[in-house]
Amino acid sequence: MKGFSQKTNSKLANVMDSAESGSGFSQTNSEIKIKSPKSKKRKGPGLRDVSITENPNRNKWRVIRWTFLLSVNFMFFASFYFDIQILEGSLSGSRLLGFHLADPFAAIQVMLASRVFNINLIIGVTTIVIVYLLIGGRFFCSWVCPYHFLAELGEMTHKQLIQKKIIKRNHVFNGNLKYYFFALFLVLSLLSGYTIFEVINPVSILSRSFVYGVGLIIFWVLALLLFEIFYSRRAWCRYFCPVGVPYNIIGRVAPFKVHWNISKCSNCKKCQRACMVPWVLKNTVNMGAADYIVSGDCTRCGLCLDACEDGALSYNIRYLDKLI
Amino acid sequence: MKKDLTRRFFFKKTTTAVIAGGAAVYGVASVPLLKSSELQLRPPGALAEDLFLSSCIKCGQCLQVCPPQVIELAGISSGFGIGTPFIVPQKGACILCKGLPCVLACPTGALDHHISEGKEADMGLAVLSKPDTCLARKGQNDIVFELQELEKSKMPVQVPLTNILSKLISRLTVDEEKIFTQEFNLDSVNKSSISAIAAAISEAQFNWLKQFTAQTKQAEEGCRICLKTCPISSEQPIVFQAESSADSKEDKVIPVVQRTCVGCGVCEEECPTSPPSITIIPRKKWSSNDLQQGVQS
User: Fold this and answer.
1) In the prediction, which pLDDT does B293 show?
2) CB < 8 Å to B50, chain A
3) Core-most of A228, B133, B195, B249, by most CB within 10 Å?
4) ipTM score of the complex?
């Protein structure tokens, strides 16, 4: 854990910075400073107000989030294993105290493949859409998805391996790939009449493994994890996962977001180093274009909140704060 | 520097194209590769296999609500069927519970909500696949047969013997039950006392039991277990017909599967012979010449 605290050595920081900027989404820091009109107002790196004490609780949100994630997945397991019937099913389709819930991507695949629009499924998807409109889109990813949890551990391992120079560098892909995958697998479902993606969907595979026991297909998930650890950091969640795409779209309009207080920010970029998706903080912290982290890929994980030593980042509700 | 950037850009384009292409190839190639050829027995109300595979969201809620807990989820060997529910009757058959909770639990209608009763299910069809071993055809009693098999098997007897004994007692006449309780010094006959007998049975007691069973009234009857255990036995899915054969010295009867059979598989699970003489053909629909095939095969 200590290796990932914000006291990373400068070499690691450089390695990571160069890796992130290669994503095609963020520009280099020097460019931004020239382009951004607001950058003059900032205090600039290293000029942080001395009166601000260091954030004492560096893992606050991570601990809360992991507890939540593991509890949700444990509820799936316990509802079946101990027959307490609170959260029955798995992440592709479930029932919370009798109310239908369905994963949007899986449900759309089912509807396209079978060409049947089942009322329970529509209710389940609508409920999920409403819930995530309230709590913020890809909130699902970092607070519920069991693969995200494994990938987070994988990311830690990856960073450590780079630090120890066992791996030379991180490889990046185009962040739009997940949208192509989303479209591709929907078209394939429609044409073939099978939910093709569900065969390889690591989220539902893991969720089922949690509840009903492990099958051979778990090796596919492990292979994916090894790919992430040794080749491309967090590749699945960042670039490929089409399950996250509906949540991504919901997350753009969902008002629950991370707020960036520009007047407190010392532009140290520690949040960007902590952020699990390199382009999420681009619009705000890099470009100064918005008060809120508006990227659809923001999972509201809270790592940037933990990393920020200026108290510039906080959870907030967009529109509501202007109303009051 | 500029050259380097374009090269990097080119590589990124290529890897992106390779990955997207790979996914497309997987998607197209998977259709013929992942189609499972063997049909499995699905829970009651399952749509036609292709539509079932596309409708099932693989959540496993049917499994969670299944009272006898006989539903399993398929692994990668069934291709597109991964995560879909299936039943192996020999491990545990569907008992067509009242209200069909699995059908009610299904969020996608892959288990068709239009059916509400077990007799409306259409899971498959039973066939007398091994008529030569069928006890009904031999005119042999199932309990007598099971006791013989148990003696041969040398396996731990407690569990199977408990089952046999409870079956036996349920079929005894009042006088026969008195003899039974006297022999084992029982005050009352219930589940715990039966399993206590089964746990500590001596060889002499076992032999007595065999003789006793052979002398009881119901030992004269041939096996009818497939019909007796059938969850929808009132629908007469199996009738015992006299077998017409050339050298009919004895009166042979044969179980014949009727149209009302839904293929739940309880007869396959309960059939005393091993392998079972009656088996389920998953997803098979009844057609008029099945009656003939049932006799012949």
Assistant:
1) 52
2) 193
3) A228
4) 0.80
